[in-house]
């Protein structure tokens, strides 16, 4: 084989290996939007940030404090 063909094949192989490595790394990372639930303004429905106190679209006050719900277990009498 001529040197030009060998160089082209080597370039293609290096490109494919790097592409595969980057694909694996990117598939393991979770995007920020998927790791947390999207929050919306109850007044206008606009998407809001988790730490926002007011809606940037309509100005409504946001109460985005998560509620802690404790499940009550039934009492067992023996």
TrEMBL record:
Residues 40-62 form the Zinc-ribbon domain. The keyword Iron does not apply. The keyword Transmembrane helix applies. This is Zinc-ribbon domain-containing protein. The chain crosses the membrane at residues 6-26. InterPro entries: Ribosomal_eL40_sf, Zinc_ribbon_dom. Keywords: Membrane, Transmembrane, Transmembrane helix. Gene3D superfamilies: 4.10.1060.50. It holds the Pfam family Zn_Ribbon_1.
């Amino acid at each position: 084989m001529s040197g030009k063909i060998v160089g082209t094949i080597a370039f293609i192989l290096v490109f494919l290996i790097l592409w595969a490595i980057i694909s694996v790394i990117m598939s393991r990372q979770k995007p920020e939007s998927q790791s947390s639930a999207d929050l919306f303004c109850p007044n206008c429905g606009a998407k809001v940030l988790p730490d926002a106190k007011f809606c940037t679209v309509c100005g409504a006050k946001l109460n985005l404090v998560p509620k802690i719900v404790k499940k009550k277990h039934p009492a067992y009498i023996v």
